[in-house]
Amino acid sequence: MASAGVVNIRRDVDDKFYRYKMPILVTKIEGRGNGIKTVLSNMSDVARALSRPPSYPAKYFGGELGALTSMDEPNDKYIVNGAHDNARLRDLLDGFIDKFVLCGSCKNPETDLFLTKTEDIFRDCKACGAQTGVDMRQKLTTWIIRNPPKRTKKKKTAENAENAGEGKEGEDGDKGGEGSDDDEFTKRIKAEAAELPTAEQAAASGVAGLSLDDEGSDEGGDSPLEALTLWIEENKSKDDGAGLTPQTIMDKTAELGIEGKHKTVQTLVESLFTENVMTELKKYMPVFQKAIGSEDEKNQRNQKSLLGGLERLVGVNYPQLVPVVPKILMEFYQNDVLEEDIIVQWGTHVSKKYVGKDVSKKVRKAAEPMLKWFEEAEDEESE
């Protein structure tokens, strides 16, 4: 058994000489009624033992529990809304460790996370040298992409990482090869991670001044998106979302300085819709009509981001919705939000930009009735 207050990182390993230890997760329930919350008292200490930012496991808890997560990194405070049993959180921590810490090959926890240029996430094992992919269907992957890990040491070449992403997904990457791009790739990741402000820094500087540029660079732009997501989740839980109207949503995006930005559209799709999407579509359709623009000047980039958000909504968050993809597309099409050319182009080109390749194929496969309908309509017009 481990010493008091400490356990093996892999709790399935019953070996007192196992070298990889972490503090036992300590939690505390505070408040009452609607204000009840679970404080993760030593989240930073646990995360440090796992060589991960404390926001990663904290966000993982919130995603798995369907609860809002409050994080104040400068003051080392991490909170999950609601009352959650300590044993349940420890089990969830085991799940986080298995998915985002342990090497997929040798199950050693001595790994670093890194992102490829295609925004796939890999674990780089210091013990066996394997680079194994993370399941991109996990909800936490979105947070990691927006808040990339800092590279702590020189990694294998960027080309090898790309080959691993394009080859056997989830398997070991190619360990061979040499190249000079490694340093540049590492520097770029570090620079991008360092430039991302925390939510607190954003609040201090005024989030309305932060925006996403038109080329898709998120420099300084993730805090407003996160603020928008949290705002939507909070208002969903108040009076059955009565205060969450198209006008209040558009006012909020304007207040945050991200109105009309393509990543805002993706965030809205993922945040506003649930398994009741067909009912919710009618309520929130004006938001997307406004974001896409007028008939004469529709924003194609925003349409593509909407489809990317749809991929994540049905492919990751609510897989049970995959069969209704044609109905969702039809609603957007008939309300002049999505154009035929954009839907057809998306439906016939598999992409790993938003989800894993297998999920991307699955969602597009479900959309085939819509594509066939377009094709038949075109044939009739030709005749």
From TrEMBL:
GO cellular component, one term: cytosol
PROSITE patterns (UniProt xref): W2 (PS51363)
GO annotation, biological process: formation of cytoplasmic translation initiation complex
SMART domains for the chain: eIF2B_5 (SM00653), eIF5C (SM00515)
W2 domain location: 218-383
Compositional bias (Low complexity): 194-204
Bias type Acidic residues, positions: 212-221
InterPro entries in alphabetical order: ARM-type_fold (IPR016024), IF2/IF5 (IPR045196), Transl_init_fac_IF2/IF5_dom (IPR002735), Transl_init_fac_IF2/IF5_N (IPR016189), Transl_init_fac_IF2/IF5_Zn-bd (IPR016190), W2_domain (IPR003307)
Region (Disordered): 142-224
Swiss-Prot/TrEMBL keywords: GTP-binding, Initiation factor, Nucleotide-binding, Protein biosynthesis
Biased amino acid composition, Basic and acidic residues: 165-178
Cross-referenced Pfam families: eIF-5_eIF-2B, W2
Keyword GTP-binding applies: yes
Transferase among keywords: no
GO MF annotation terms: eukaryotic initiation factor eIF2 binding; GDP-dissociation inhibitor activity; GTP binding; translation initiation factor activity
Assigned protein family: Belongs to the eIF-2-beta/eIF-5 family.
Protein name according to UniProt: W2 domain-containing protein
